[in-house]
Amino acid sequence: MHLNMRFQNGKAKALTLSYDDGVIHDKRLIDILNRYGLKATFNLNSGIFGQGNIVKGKDRGRMKLDEAKNVYINSGHEIASHTYTHPFITDLRYNDMLYEVLEDKKCLEKEFGCIVKGYAAPYGCCSDELDGILRSIGIVYQRTVDETLCMELPQNWMRLQGTCHHNNPKLMELARSLAKWQPNHTDKCRMFYVWGHSYEFDENDNWNVIENFAKYIGGRDDIWYAANIEIYEYVQAFKNLHTDTMNKIIYNSSALSVWFEKNRKLYEVKSGETIYLE
């Protein structure tokens, strides 16, 4: 029998969010997420901190660097790259593409004191050439702007597609679907992925959308609330388990505890541990 992956503590459901641009409205969003126990990834452009932008009479302004550091550091959420200056990056020459992603990664790591491994594509611009650049500098996943309306784990983390944008009219229908789903021992894990820009709540005067969503889906014992990178690294830890040919001896060389089901039984194999199955 194959090993069927389960998330942390044996859960089969995960929820993650992704928000772009480092705008002032992220402060209110983080307050909501933290109140209900949700986790997100915030994708920042380190070359344009503090730049204002008025749209529809509303301020889309990006936080200044010092303000951003106060908001994101120790917030419990992931910081990821969104390029240095938010260009249509695939229109650029190779050297300029490299500069945009490497400079952003370097500056974010220096200012926020973290290792940046994630990336969100500005305007959804992706290419095989850019994929190679991202991999070469240590980026392990790339979020696009596509919506699948599904909750399957990605086959290609360099084309990570969200379940839906928060403005999708099916947001709460999908949330109810995840909440009501009762997985059996053969079901695969599900990941509900929501993305957007927090300034959209202000422009559309619909902060109630994220407030109601977070209130409904948060605080559930059977959902793992995780940042993008946490899910990626957990999936890799599961995939990299060492086994014998019969899947009876399992060795976990990763730094994470890993859970899986086999023959209707749930197992945990801790970091550095070898377990022997019946």
Shape: globular
Instruction: Find the CATH topology of the largest domain.
Output: TIM Barrel
Q: How many domain regions? A: 2
The helix fraction, in percent, is 25-40%
User: What is the CATH C level class of the largest domain, in words?
Assistant: Alpha Beta
CATH architecture identity of the largest domain = Alpha-Beta Barrel
Q: Main sheet?
A: 6 strands, parallel
Order of H and E elements: EEHEEEHEHEHEEEHEHHEHEEEEE
Structure classification: alpha/beta
Poorly predicted regions: none
The overall strand count is: 17
The helix tally amounts to 8
* Overall mean confidence score, pLDDT: 97
Q: Tell me the fraction of residues in β-strands, as a range.
A: 15-25%
Distance, first to last CA: 12 Å
The whole-angstrom Rg is 19 Å
In CATH, the homologous superfamily of the largest domain goes by the name Glycoside hydrolase/deacetylase
Polypeptide structure, described:
This protein is globular. The chain has two domains: 15-228, Alpha-Beta Barrel (TIM Barrel), CATH 3.20.20.370; 240-276, no CATH class. The strands form five sheets. Strands 2, 3, 6, 10, 11 and 12 form a six-stranded parallel β-sheet that branches. The N and C termini lie close together (12 Å). Helix 1 runs parallel beside helix 7 (207-217) and helix 3 (94-112) packs parallel to helix 4. It is built from eight helices and 17 strands. It has helices at 26-36, 65-72, 94-112, 128-136, 171-180, 199-203, 207-217, 228-239; strands at residues 4-6, 13-20, 40-44, 54-55, 58-59, 78-81, 118-120, 141-147, 160-162, 164-165, 190-196, 223-225, 242-243, 249-251, 258-262, 265-269, 274-276. The mean pLDDT is 97. By secondary structure, the protein is an alpha/beta fold.
